[in-house]
Amino acid sequence: MAQILAPTTQWHMRLNKSSTNANPMTAKMWGSLLLKQNKKGVSKSSSKFRVYALQSENSTINRLEGLLNLDITPFTDKIIAEYIWIGGSGIDVRSKSRTIPKPVEHPSELPKWNYDGSSTGQAPGEDSEVILYPQAIFKDPFRGGNNILVICDTYTPQGEPIPTNKRHRAAEIFSNQKVIDEVPWFGIEQEYTLLQTNVKWPLGWPAGGYPGPQGPYYCGAGADKSFGRDVSDAHYKACLYAGINISGTNGEVMPGQWEYQVGPSVGIEAGDHIWASRYILERITEQAGVVLSLDPKPIEGDWNGAGCHTNFSTKSMREDGGYEVIKKAILNLSLRHKDHISAYGEGNERRLTGKHETASINTFSWGVANRGCSIRVGRETEKKGKGYLEDRRPASNMDPYVVTSLLAETTMLWEPTLEAEALAAQKLALNV
């Protein structure tokens, strides 16, 4: 925890009025102190230093922090917009800032922009320009004021979506009138692991060693069970400030692993909110001096992996008689199991082993209250005869645009042949 609470060594002197020995430290004396520390080799350390300057007899101010916290709204109508997009790996988030003349309320008020796609693995060097289209706006919890975070998708100068732009296809599916009429809801459970910066080993774990077996860590409290709560809590509040529909958070089964939930969100909004929340989490871990990992199985062996369970329902599922609609959706999902698995995240085969609350990646299954199935249906849904289903297959590094739109497409737009449907129904009956 100390690494989170105090990620950098702070040079901080407080003067006490009641102390007869307290003398004001001049700028010259301060510089001399830092020089002496540097001569001792402190500058070679990996620690970072925050230099404090004296403000008054009994208080100090960090000059850099003061500038970072400046409220510019009384002095200008201009705002800072942080344009955010997904990089060439399909999981990395990139961003850069620009000044906008005045506050905006809708992404259509923002200009398109461009970046060097050859530096993100998204374009060749001889034709490297990629165009950013603003799509969603969130309040900026880091800069405050009227400043904003802008979720963008990516296009060629000719207006064609580049291959890593998964939002474009998702928007097409969610704009289908049949899908719109069903008002698809998504609740996404994003799991992640916090790693120590120098050794890339989970936070709270002894370097090169292992903590005690899983059991006490899930939703646990205490210095020997909970590692990284400050990051989780800071992220929670930052998301609420930003306007992200975050609905909860908890410590996970593996120590150093956490989860937060976003939703219920409608349609394309689910993907926008997850990507914005991931960006905010990256920025917070950057400040805390820890590393964020979305690897679906960060530690091999008898340790839980990290998933991104996706809860899903349609209007028909939420109404009376919805349980039959859910079962029909599960049937369709069983027939497209391989299509979904191939789109549910890199390295997922290391996680979906049939152990640690997962189903085997090679076999589709469903059950009520069964966390070892591909699709779980809650007891309350079974009891009421309506509700939602949980797809437990997506990995922590899945693209939410892909997963949500594929769920919508498979359950609302795709129709299997009668023969395939009959065979799948038999298999599922045997499975249950």
Description:
The chain has 432 residues and is of the alpha+beta class. The protein folds into three domains: 2-68, no CATH class; 79-164, Glutamine synthetase, N-terminal domain (Ubiquitin-like (UB roll)), CATH 3.10.20; 177-431, Glutamine synthetase/guanido kinase, catalytic domain (Creatine Kinase, Chain A, domain 2). 30% of the residues lie in helices and 23% in strands. It has 13 helices and 16 strands. The strands form three sheets. Strands 9, 10, 11, 12, 13, 14, 15 and 16 form an eight-stranded mixed β-sheet that branches. A five-stranded mixed β-sheet has the order 5-4-8-7-6, with helices on one face. The chain is globular, with a radius of gyration of 25 Å.
CATH topology of the largest domain: Creatine Kinase, Chain A, domain 2
Topology as H/E string?
Answer: HEHEEHEEEEEHHEHEEHEEHHHEEHEHH
- What is the second-level CATH architecture of the largest domain? 2-Layer Sandwich
Structural class: alpha+beta
Number of helices: 13
| Share of β-strand residues | 15-25%
Q: Give the integer mean of the pLDDT values.
A: 87
Level-1 CATH class name of the largest domain: Alpha Beta
Distance between the termini: 45 Å
- Give the CATH superfamily of the largest domain: Glutamine synthetase/guanido kinase, catalytic domain
Shape: globular
Family: Belongs to the glutamine synthetase family.
Domain GS catalytic: 163-432
GO cellular component, one term: chloroplast
Enzyme class: ligase
